[in-house]
What does this fold into?
Amino acid sequence: MKIGVIAANGKVGRLIVKEALERGMDVTAIVRSANRTEAKKVIQKDIMALTREDLEGFDVVVDAFGIWDDEKMNLHSVTLNHLADILSGSSTRLLVVGGAGSLYMDKDHSQRLFETADFPKEYLPVSRGQGKSLDELRKRNDVKWTYISPAAEFDPEGKKTGSYVLAGEEFTVNEKGESYISYADYALALVDEAEKGNHIRERISVRK
It folds into this structure.
């Protein structure tokens, strides 16, 4: 399997690269600056400079792009729309590293996590930005996308346990009432989805 990882230098991107390489996949790191991953194959380009030709031949492209600058939250939509446009009509699947804030709190899907009263204000801009990009992605029937939301507590330093719970559109917790996943176990879940391709044009979520 040929897999390209956009924003591979980021914390979650590097772990996705590592997980895919450990499974013997043909991995290309797609990075804006010098490659800091374990991948030997590299495309060094800004995400907005990527072309259809750049992404030809990949079975899966992972979009691990993220931004925290409140003034640039529109880039979640801008970059994801660009990737969808250049992958439109192709057989390449697009797996998106999403956020937890857009997960629904009820079966009617009338309220999202970031719309609850006690949602941390410091995470509101990024959650709204990611939520908007997901809303736009849902309209695309010309791209084989899968949006993968982590748990509310997304731990960059957490250990890889080798297990996770796969859920859907709704916010879920474990038996202790916790919504938690480490970056390493999230990477495991994402690469599993890359291999299996069970959730085309769906949003899924993962937690411990």
Remarks:
- The longest helix spans residues 124-137.
